Every structure is written in C-alpha cells, then in structure tokens.
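Hi all, a correction to my earlier message: I attached the wrong file for 3-isopropylmalate dehydrogenase. Here's the right sequence:
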Amino acid sequence: MSIYKIAVLAGDGIGPEVMAEAIKVLDACAQRFHFQPQYQAVKVGGAAIDAYGEALPAATLQACEQSDAILFGSVGGPKWTHLPAAQQPERAALLKLRQHFDLFCNIRPARWYAGFEHLSPLKPQTTAKGMDIVCFRELTSGIYFGAKERSEQSASDTQTYQRDEIRRIAIKAFQTAVHRRGKVTSIDKANVMASGVLWREVVSEVAQQFPQVQLEHMYVDNAAMQLIRDPSQFDVLLCDNLFGDILSDELAAIAGSLGLLPSASINASRFGLYEPAGGSAPDIAGQGSANPIAQILSAALMLRYSFANEAAACAIETGVTHALKQQQVTADLTSTNPVSTARVGDAVAQFITEEVAAWA
Ligand code: NAD
Ligand code: IPM
Ligand code: MN
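and the right structure:
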C-alpha cells in the first residue's frame, strides 16, 4: 500500500477547524482508495510564535522537508500584527515556505457547480453562462520578494521579474490551457510598469510554442471589471504574484465565498503546499462556522498533483458537490439553516465512504 507522507500545518484562526475536516475526508479516501496517509502535525505561524517564539521553527521546516507534501491551513491574525514585519506569521512562515521550496506555481481553480450558481452574488443572467477558471499565479518573485525599504518618511517595495521566472509560470498556464478550452488571458499593467512590458513580451514568446492556445493580454484593471461583468469569457488566467493574489480573492467572491477556493503551490519537482486561498478569518474563528470546502478541495489538489491519485481527488470533488446538493453548507453560503464546519466534513466523508464504494 502506498504511503503518503503529509506535513500538516494547521496554523491559526479557522486553520485548525477546517484542517480537521480535510483530514477526516482524507482518511475516508485512504480507506476507499487504499493508501496510507502518514501525518506529521506541527505548529506554524502565530501558534508557533506562541509556543516556541518563532513562526517557522526548525522542527516545522524539517517535518515539511521529510514529507511528500504540505497541507497548510492559514496563518496570521491581530494577535501578531504588533511584531516586526519580518517576524509576522505571513512573512516568516508562509512566504518563507514558498521561497524555501521554490513553490513558484500557484494554481487556484474557481468555478460554479452546476445547480449552485445561486451561491454567486452575480446576476442569474450572468451565472447562466457558467464559470470555470483556473488562475495561475507566479508565487516566488515580484513585489512580494523584491527589495523593501522603510525610513521614517518613506517606504518602498520593488517589483523585479527575470525572464525565466515569467517563462516557467507561463509554460504551466499554457500546458493547462491545452487540455481545457484553449485560452490564456495574461494579466499585466504594461501601460505603466516596466515589469509588465517584460511580462507581456515573455508570455508572447511562450505562446509561440502553443499554437493551439489563444493568447489574450489584458490590463489588470480591465480584468477586475471583466471578471464581474462576464467570467465565462475566461479559461486560464496568468498573473504575477500581486495581481494573482488580488484577482483570486475576486474569483472566490464570484464563486460564492472565499471559503470555496482551494490552492496548490508547486515546484518543478511537483512537491507542493496546499492551502485555502483565504486566510485565518479571525472574525469567525472558534465558532465552528467556517466553511471547510476550500481546505477539503486543497487536499484533493494535493492528491492530484503531489500523489497523482486522480481517482481520489475526483472522489473528494464529487463529495463536495454532494454536500452542496444536500444543503450541507455553512453560513457564508446560506442564511437559512447553515450547518457547522464539522457537518460539511461529515457529508463529504460520508459520501466517499458510502457512495464511492458503489462506483467500484
Ligand atoms: P481572510 O481571508 O482571513 O478573511 C476575509 C473574509 O472572508 C472574512 O470575513 C472571513 O470571515 C471570510 N472567510 C475567509 N475564509 C472563510 C471560510 N473558510 N469560511 C467562511 N468565511 C471565510 O482575510 P483577512 O481578514 O484579510 O486576513 C486575516 C488574516 O489571515 C491576516 O493575518 C492575513 O494576513 C491572513 N491570511 C493568511 C492567509 C494564509 O495563511 N494562506 C491567506 C490570506 C490571509
Ligand atoms: C494568499 C495570502 C498570502 C499572499 C498572504 C497571507 C501572505 O493572501 O495566499 O493569497 O498574499 O500570498
Ligand atoms: Mn490572498
């Protein structure tokens, strides 16, 4: 039986609550699909600062290095914002992990599930056209990792992109578009930014290797508007680090909730860190009301990308549709009879245990 070594970094806020549901679902999958998950649960972020004085203790990094994949919750919150910037959970743990493992390729799929378009805040005539978008976000360069300066009177962040950094994420986006609807929309601000001009140039070069894919360049401000107006026009989005961060939250809102959007951050060896696109949601932490779907779908992406277990990944995704069908949804998705975080996890796990068996 295959052993899957998984470092579990639940983190802060709603992280531990939604992580428990992802593990519940993974355990149900392990039974059905005959693999053996070996979890190593370690502290990260604010929880690690509180316990050990630093956001990414050596033992946590070591657990990640010894694993095949990292399942990550979320980090940060008001309790730690007084710390010097470099010690805060987001930078000291999450950005550090992305950099350490060279997780340059961030994938955020956003869609409307057939029959659940009403979860979206967009108009029915817009949702009727459907949405199925995969956002590719460059994750280890750009303004996040450029030189930063701060004096009393000024502050600066620098955006630098190397050709190779743009090329490798562009190739991933095009490779995916080949197997989808054959369209890449590359997002930039080439009318203002030098790095945007280079971005456009390199993406156009990569496009020549993929004649079957249509490439469209779009300024980010227009893209933010077009996504709301008619998301059905997009197939694969290709974004730099900052624009991808912003537009992926917009995608989540269009889908219905930040609690629905999973994410995979992978490197050239397909080692990955899998986490919800949203954060620690301090406003609802501890109430058992957070939506665990983004975390559960992140576990599905982990099975797909790091363990090449497509059947188990699909079973989870179908289980999520099942939970939605059964109206087993949290308060972010309904105002009438929302269920708890744990009930959503139960519904997905139960589907995998009982109904996936019937497929075999
Ligand atoms: P957030 O994503 O935590 O929350 C934004 C809004 O979305 C809140 O109203 C929250 O309740 C809601 N929301 C998010 N996830 C939800 C879920 N699963 N179910 C239901 N509602 C959900 O963003 P924020 O408030 O700007 O940030 C809070 C903290 O999280 C900050 O410290 C931020 O830096 C951090 N953060 C961490 C990550 C990460 O670890 N990957 C990602 C984003 C933000
Ligand atoms: C995300 C988050 C992170 C980012 C933060 C917490 C550093 O917002 O994963 O989208 O900006 O990349
Ligand atoms: Mn974000």
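Sorry for the mix-up. The mean pLDDT is 96.
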